[in-house]
Each structure stands twice: as structure tokens, then as C-alpha cells.
Amino acid sequence: MSSAPNMGEYLMSVQPTRAFLTIDGRVLSYLDFGGTGRPLLALHGHLSEGSSFAALAAALGSDWRVIAPDQRGHGDSDRADDYTRAGYLDDLVALLAHLGIGKTVVLGHSLGGINAYHLAAEHPALVEALINVDAPVDLPDHGTSPLAFVLNFPYTAATREDLLAACGPLAPAIAPALRRLADGSGWRLPFHPGDTVDSETLVHGDHWKQWLATDCPALLIHGLRSQALPTRQALDMADRRPGTAYRPLETDHFVPLADPDGFATTVQQFLAGI
After folding, report:
1. In a domain, 16, yes or no
2. Which entry of 119, 125, 150, 223 is 20 to 30 Å from 39 by CA?
3. Residue 226: which domain range?
4. Residue 103: which CATH number?
């Protein structure tokens, strides 16, 4: 089984199509990696964007058509008035309708994983199978968002260098994703700090009902050193939900980035069986 090439190699060989959908006056951007294969909707986590699935799309090849939106407030998608589950799901339902996709495999990491199993619970006819990448179902509210540190980042700056300097240790990870402002007057982050904290705060709570609402084939990929999903909870998630395979990887929470080859291989093996 082939391993995932790095993102740079893939983007040099096959350029995904970036397209835009307007929903209630707000732009939702998405990448379509093309091909005639079965559709796979890939949902990123906070501080990320659709392009984070480029290496996975390369590994899957022509068998799967990967659709990777920049979820609201991320990447090239517009900011939104709210970051509730209902808002995120409305975007996904509109995107699938726009693309004429009646049923799809849905993969999601972190925030994207929570949105994925909520989509399956509320719109089961749209979801053929589910891949949850290190997204918990029980997120206690400790009063402070673990992403609160981004509130110290400016959303925009006059120069790219100024913006990166303000991001401190996170700068190398963010650098490739910085955007020029539309009027050319400066640069911006690929996420808004305040919106990000609002969005993360709204994932807190008990999501067991949604996780257990469906029995379509599912895969739970768990980072054994995850900062977000404790091992006991991950095992309970797999045990309690029918049709769920559990695959641990020796990574932290950022599974696709920490072990892209292992991640891609695990996804490939699951997809081959559905």
C-alpha cells in the first residue's frame, strides 16, 4: 500500500480546484481534488484549512474524490456570525447539495470530527461512513479555552514578517497559510483569533447522543498521546458505538500532521472495506 507523499510534492503534480459557494451572502471556499472516484468530505480542525488534506488526497488517488472545505471562518472562507454546530452543518449540507453529492464518506479531525458525527446524526441519509480523527465526545468546560493563546495574535499586520513575529512559536506552522488582504494593504491570519476561541468554546459539552445516533461503518483514529481525547474515552467510544473500528497511532492530537503516512494508510485500509 502506498504511503502519503508530502504536500509540496503532491501540489506540484496535481493542483486541486479551489471553488467558492455563496451561502446567505457569505463565501464558503472549498478544494476539490477531482477524479471520478467515490466522494469523501474531509473536515479540518481549528487553526487549519482544507489544504491540510492534500497528502491524504494524493495517497487515496483516483479511487476517491476528496472535497475539503475551508470551514466557516477558516482559510479563504468568510467569517460567520456564529460558530454553532447548526451553522457548521448548514454549510456542509449546502456544499453537498451544490456538488450534487447525495451520500458521502465523511472524515473529520478535531473540530471537523465533531462536525462529522453531528452531520451523521442529523443527516444520516448523507453519510455512508464516518472517520473520526481524534475528536472526543465529552469535552468538559474548564473555563478557559485551550486556544485562548491565539487572542494575543493580531488578525492583520502591515507586513508578513510583522504578522509572523507576533505569532511566536506557532509562526512556522502558520507561515504557509497567511493571506494577503484583498486590498493589498497587508496580511492576515487564516483564522480570526476571537472567532477561533468562540468556536472552540462551543464544542464543549456532552456529544455522546450524537456519536451513538448512527450505526454506519465508522473508524476512530486515536493519537495515543492526544491532548484532546483520553485513551479511556476513546476505547469507550469504540466499544459503545456499533460498527466502529478503533485504530491507535503513536502521535499527539495532530494525527494527520504527526504521522501522515500512518494516517493515510489507516484511512486507506478502512475505505477498502466499505
Report:
1. yes
2. 223
3. 7-140+204-271
4. 3.40.50.1820
Question: 127: exposed, middle or buried (C-beta count within 10 Å: 0-12, 13-18, 19+)?
Answer: buried
pTM recorded for the entire structure: 0.94
Q: What percent of the chain has pLDDT over 90?
A: 92
Q: Is residue 65 part of a domain?
A: yes
In a domain, 156, yes or no: no
Question: Would you say residue 24 lies in a domain?
Answer: yes
Considering its fold, how many domains does the chain have in total?
A: 1
What value does the mean pLDDT of the chain take? 94
CA-closest candidate to residue 207, choices 84, 114, 107 = 114
| Chain segment 55-112, per-residue pLDDT in tens | 999 999 999 999 999 999 999 999 999 999 999 999 999 999 999 999 999 999 999 9
